Amino acid sequence: MKKLLLLALVTMFATAAFAQDAQQKVEIAAGYSYFHSSAGGFVPSASLNGGGLSLAYFFFKHVGLKAEFTDYGSYSQIVTVPASTQGCNSLSDCQLPVSGSVFTYTIGPVLRFQIKRRFHPFAEVMFGGAHNNIYSNIYNSCTDQGECINLSKLPNHNAFDLVLGGGLDIPFHEHISFRLPQVDYVRTGFGNPTVIGSSTQGNLRVQGGVVFRF
């Protein structure tokens, strides 16, 4: 009887320890995201506000794999193309009212650490895609005005993106943490030099929200 009781206690504690370990393997984060799109050629910079959701699974104590989707909705800009240039066959600047929609989808490794159980800093490197159709809308708007000449082919709506950055989580509950502003550098590769002045863009992203651990 004692052996059965001892075995039951050992099994119970082992199960609890395994469950606690498993709870630390999965992270689901949701929150606000600010995205500053850098200027490129005659395309001005833009400040975008959106939200996203991410899922991370930690295969080891400090190393995991993270997948993320963030949507910034739509935004509008007035793009000024300089007069008598390859993009504006006019004596005055071409004013192009355009709009676009933006979202990103990435996946990659994440490193998580723990400082006295009060702070959980992390770092990430992710790869994936970004969608932004404002560049093709600039092309279409310019063509519709009839003043654009010698523009290269229609830019792609989608591009490769690279995310480098990290942040800090502060536990509030056993399964809940607050994510302080996470800061990332996001590099995208939209368009071509003729239309937007550069084939790559260096962008800044700041995020914050709530993290659930299971």
Structural description of this entry:
The protein has 214 residues and is an alpha+beta fold. The protein has one domain (25-213): Porin (Beta Barrel), CATH 2.40.160. Helix content is 18%, strand content 54%. It is built from three helices and eight strands, in the order αβββββαββαβ. It has helices spanning 2-23, 134-145, 193-196, and strands at 26-37, 46-58, 63-81, 94-112, 120-132, 158-171, 176-188, 201-213. Strands 1-2-3-4-5-6-7-8 form an eight-stranded antiparallel beta barrel. Strand 1 and strand 2 form a beta hairpin. The chain is elongated, with a radius of gyration of 24 Å. It starts with a helix and ends with a strand. Mean pLDDT is 82; it is low at 1-22.
What is shown here, in short?
With 214 residues, the chain is of the alpha+beta class. It has helices spanning 2-23, 134-145, 193-196, and strands at residues 26-37, 46-58, 63-81, 94-112, 120-132, 158-171, 176-188, 201-213.
What brief labels describe this structure?
alpha+beta; Porin; disordered N terminus; 214 residues
CATH topology: Porin
The CATH architecture name reads Beta Barrel
Main sheet makeup: 8 strands, antiparallel, barrel
- Helix percent band: 10-25%
Strand order of the largest sheet: 1-2-3-4-5-6-7-8
Topology:
Layout: H1 2-23, E1 26-37, E2 46-58, E3 63-81, E4 94-112, E5 120-132, H2 134-145, E6 158-171, E7 176-188, H3 193-196, E8 201-213
Antiparallel strand pairs: 1-2, 1-8, 2-3, 3-4, 4-5, 5-6, 6-7, 7-8
